[in-house]
Amino acid sequence: MNRCARPPPLDCQRRCTHQAAPRAQAIVTADSPIPRLGLGTWQNTDFDQCRESVRTAIEVGYRHVDTAELYENERPVGAGVAAADVPREDVYVATKVLHPRNAGDVTRDSIRAAVAGCLDRLGLDRVDLLYVHWPSDYDLDLVHSTLAACRDDGLVDGVGVSNYEPEHVDRALATDPAILANQVECHPLLAQADLREYCAEVGVDVVAYAPLAHGNVFDLTELQRVADDSGVSVPRVTLARLREKGVAAVPKATSEAHIRDNWASRDLDLSDDDVARIDGIERTERFFDPDYAPDW
Picking from 23-37, 169-183, 199-213, 275-289, which range would have the lowest pLDDT averaged per residue? Predict the structure, then answer.
C-alpha cells in the first residue's frame, strides 16, 4: 500500500471525483489512502477475542483497523496487528481521541498526552489516521492546530474528524486544510446524502461507522429481498451499496465467519433494480445521538 509519513499535497487531497452514473451517487475523494473496508472494534473489549479478530481480519485481507481511546481496546488491537502475518506498514490503523466522556480539560499538553497514550497502548510509533471523536464544545482551533503539529512531528500520518457537521468541518479545515476524513454514522437508514456531498466538495473522505445500522439492517425487507435474490447475506448487500457510493466502512465483527462475510462484500455488484430497492427505503433512523452530539 502506498503510504507516506506526511499528507499528500493539498492539490491532491482536495481533488474530488464525481462518478456520474444514473444509479449511483459515487462521490470519492481522489487519492484517498483509506482502504474502503475496515474492521470496526467498538465494544470488542475482551483482550483475547479482540486480538484474534484483528489478527484474523488482517490475514483474511483487511488492511484497515479502526479503534478509539474510549473503546478501551487499543492494547488488544495493537497486539492483533503485531500478531498478524502481514507487515505493519501494510495495515492502516486508525484511532480516536477527545471523546467528551473522558477528554477532561482540553489543552495542547492534554491533547499530546492523549496521542502519546494511544501510541503506547497500540504499541506503535505512529498511527495512520487519528480522529477527533466528537466536536463537543472544544476550542477546535486549538485541537486541530495541535493535531497538525503531531502530524508534523511524525506521530500521525493523517488527521480526521468524527461526527462533524459541515460547520465543524469548515472550522477544522480553516486551521488544518489537510483533514483527511469525517467518520459518521451512515447506513441504509441514515444515508447522509447532503453531508457526503458537502465532504466531497471540500475534499474530505467519508467513513461509515455502524454501517449495519446497529444490526437493524436485518429487519429491512428491501435488503433481505436483494440478499435473497443474490444468494448472499444482508450485510454483504449493505456494505456493497456503501462501497458503490464511495463510502469507506468499518463494520464491527468478531467471529471469523462474519469477518469473512463482510470482506466478501467487495465482490458483490448490485443491479439497477437492487439499488432502486435499497435507495427506496423510506424509513430514517439515527442510532447514535448522545446529549453531547451536534445539532444534527
Answer: 23-37
* For residues 197-208, average pLDDT: 97
C-beta neighbour count of 227 within 10 angstroms: 21
- Structure confidence at residue 23 (pLDDT): 43
Distance CA(64)–CA(55), nearest Å, equals: 12
Cα separation, 211 vs 110, whole angstroms: 31
pLDDT at 247: 97
Cell 483482550: give the residue. 47
DSSP string, the chain: ----SSPPPHHHHT-EEEEEETTEEEEEETT--S-SB-EE-TT---HHHHHHHHHHHHHHT--EEE--GGGT-HHHHHHHHHHSSS-GGGSEEEEEE--TTT--S--HHHHHHHHHHHHHHHT-S-EEEEEES--TTS-HHHHHHHHHHHHHTTSEEEEEEES--HHHHHHHHHH-TT--EEEEE-BTTB--HHHHHHHHHHT-EEEEESTTGGGGGGG-HHHHHHHHHHTS-HHHHHHHHHHHTT-EE--B--SHHHHHHHHGGGG----HHHHHHHHT------S---TTS---
Q: Is the dihedral of CA 236, 196, 112, 150 positive or negative?
A: positive
Q: Global pTM? A: 0.90
Task: Find the catalytic residue in 62, 71, 92, 198.
Answer: 71
Q: What is the pLDDT of residues 236-286, one digit of tens each?
A: 999 999 999 999 999 999 999 999 999 999 999 999 999 999 999 999 999
- Could you tell me if 27 and 18 are in contact, meaning their C-beta atoms sit under 8 angstroms apart? yes
138: annotated active-site residue:
no
